[in-house]
User: Fold this.
Amino acid sequence: MIRIARASFLALALLTPPCALAQIVIVAGAQSPLPVLTAAQVEQFYLGRAHTLADGVVVTLADLPAGPARDEFYQLLTHKNPSQIRAHWSRMVFTGRALPPQEAGSVAQLRQWLASQPNLIGYMPAAEADAHVRVLLRLP
Amino acid sequence: MTTKRLLCHGIAATLLACTTVHVRADSDEAAQPPRFEFSGFGTLGAVTTDRKDVWFTRYGVNFPGNSDPDFSPDSLLGLQASMRLTDRNDITVQVLAREDGSERQDPRVTLAFFRQTLAPGLSVRAGRVRVPFFMLSDSLHVNYANPWVRPPVEVYGLNPFNDLDGIDLIYHKRLDRLDIEIHPYYGGGRIPFPQGSARLKETRGLNVVLSQGEYSLHLGHGEGRFTLERGDRQFLDMARILRATGQEGVIADLSGTRGSTSFDSVGVQWDDGDWQLVGEYARRKTNRYVVSAHGWYLSLGRRFGPLMPYAVVARQTLDKQFAQATLPAGRLAQLWDLFLTSRNNAQRSVTFGARWDFAAHAALKTEWTRARPDENSWGSYFPRGNPLTTRIGGRTFDTFSLSLDVSF
Assistant:
C-alpha cells in the first residue's frame, strides 16, 4: 500500500507541469526611490530595449545565476525560453546594442547590491523577498 | 593622429581601466555590482565540399581554403570588454580573430565605441560599430545568436563589409504593444584582400525594426561612396588586355575610387518558442567595380527541446554586370568572361541542418547544402586549380558544415 502511495505521489509529481513554480517578484532596495513598475516596462529593460524611466531616471539591472528562478523569470516576463533569451542577449551584447544585466552570484549578493545601488532592480522568488527589498512588480 | 592609432590608444586605456576596476572590485567583496563586463563568443567550424576541384568560400570574408576540411570560412574568436563610466555612458571594445580576405588571422578591432544616453530611449554611439545594412549584419559573426552555421551567403554575401567607423543613433519607443527601433548611421569601412582593398565612404543609412510579441519586421536602406583598388594579377592582366585593344576606359569600371553603392533590405522573423521562421530580401546596387544583385532566403525551424532541425532555401540573382567590353573571340574573350564570372556570386541553394543546444551557451550545428551557381557565376565557390579550365557555373555542389558555437 505504501509502495502504491509512493508511486502515485511520484507519478503526480512528474505530471505536474514544471511551470507551476513559485511567484517571482521584481525588487529594488528598501530605500530605493524607484516607483512601482509595469510588466511592459520591466520587459523593455530585461530585453535591453530601454534603460530609463519616462522621467529620464536610469535603471540598472541585475540577473540571478543561470537556473530555474532565472528561466522562470524570463519565461513569465518575455514568454521566451532559455535558448531564445541566450540568443537574444548574445545578439544585444556582441553587437554593442546593450550592456547585459549584471549577474549576482546569489540572492544574498543581489540583496547586498540592491542595498547599495538605489537605481538597481533585480528579481527573486517571492519567498526570498524580505524587509531589505521593496517589491515593484509581481509575476505572474 | 590616425584613426588606427586613436583606436589602439582607446583600447589600451579601456583595458587598463577595466583591470583597475577589477582589482578594486576584488578588494571590495563584490558588495556592489562590477562596473565592467567581459564576455566573448567563438566558433570552431569545418566545411567540406563533395567536388574536390573547388573550395567553398565566403567572398570578402575568408580567403579560399588551403585544407580540406576547411576551417577558415566560419572559425573565429571574439573577446569583448565594456566599462560603465557613469549610468549614462559606457565604452565597449571588441577584438575579433578570424581569417580575412587576405588570408591574415591578425586580431582586429571590430567594436570600439563610446555610448551616451541622450534621453529616454535615445542613445548615441561614436567610434567603430557594425555595418547594419541587413537584418542580421551586425551579428553576422556571432554565430551562437543565429540558428544556422552561418547566415545565408546568398544575402549576406551581398555585403561583406563589417566595420563602420562613424556614429549612429538608436532610438527605442513602445507604442501600445508595438516596439519600434529607429537606427540611423553615418561612417565608412574597409575590407582588405590580396593586393587591394575595398572601402565604403560617407555611408549613411536608416534601419527600422518593428516588433510585437512573436513577430518582427526589419526595414533597411544604406548608401555611400564605394572604392575598390585592385593590384592583383588577374586585374593587371585584364587591364593590359583592355589597353592593348583600345578599351582603356573600361578599366575605370574595374578598379578605382569613383563608385557608389546602395543597399536595401526587408526581413521578417516569427518565433513562438517552438517554430522559427526567418525570411529576408536584400538588394545591392552599384555603378561600377562589383555587380548589382539581389538575394533572398526563407528559413523554417522547429524546436524539440534542445534540438532544432531547420531547412533554408536561398537565391542570389545577378541584376547588372559592372563593366562591358568587346574583345576578339578566342582566348581574350574567354579571359574577359572569366573575369566577369569570377565576380558574380549568383546561385540557388537548399539547406537542411540541425542545431543542438547541448549546454548552456554552447551549440553544435551541422548543415548539408546543395548549391548550384548560375552558368555565368562562381556562386560561393572558388576553383582549386586553373580557373580557365575549372567550370563552376551550372554545376551542383554538396557542402557539409559542422560547427561548435559558444558564447561566454
